[in-house]
Design a protein that fits this description.
By secondary structure, the chain is an all-alpha fold. It is built from four helices and no strands. The protein has two domains: about 60 residues; about 60 residues. The longest helix is centred in the last third of the chain and has 30 residues. Bound molecules: fe (ii) ion (FE2). Fe (ii) ion (FE2) binds next to helix 3.
Length: about 150
């Protein structure tokens, strides 16, 4: 385990808290929508967006956003660790089938994420500047990556 300075550790903890909080707000929005409360859902989503902004600010301040190669490398090793160590350990440890099923589903989805990240790293290595953006990725909101 690499040691990072304490201020970075705290900024990262803040990032994890705000990122989780944003995701939680979105889950509440989905529930509100299902309950027929469309306006409440919009409030939850607006809060989620603000939490996202805070999370980004915290991760940048923690110097954990370093540009294309480092970011892709980080995302890939994180996904590998989760798929190879974190989730399998939890799956072996739970006896409730429903919980194990959710965890298995996450691993299956993440394997596909890992494939995408690896493909992305290959096209970044092959490309001179930015990578191409296939339609399935571009839903009208994808910001373009900076040229390397
Ligand atoms: Fe993940």
């Amino acid at each position: 385990m690499s040691r990072i300075p304490r201020y970075q550790e705290h900024l990262k903890t803040g990032f994890t808290a705000e990122a989780a909080s944003a995701a939680r707000c979105r889950a509440y929005a989905v529930r509100a929508e299902r309950d027929g409360l469309a306006n409440l859902a919009r409030h939850w989503r607006a809060l989620a967006e603000e939490k996202d902004r805070l999370a980004i600010e915290l991760l940048e301040a923690a110097e954990q956003v370093r540009g294309t190669d480092a970011d892709l490398g980080n995302a890939i090793s994180e996904e590998r660790y989760e798929n190879d160590a974190l989730y399998p350990r939890m799956i072996r440890d739970v006896h409730e089938q429903a919980a194990a099923d959710v965890l298995l589903k996450v691993v299956a989805a993440q394997k596909e994420h890992l494939r995408r990240l690896e493909a992305l790293r290959e096209s970044v290595n092959a490309a001179q500047g930015d990578v191409s953006l296939p339609v399935e990725v571009d839903r009208g909101t994808a910001p373009s990556a900076p040229a390397s």
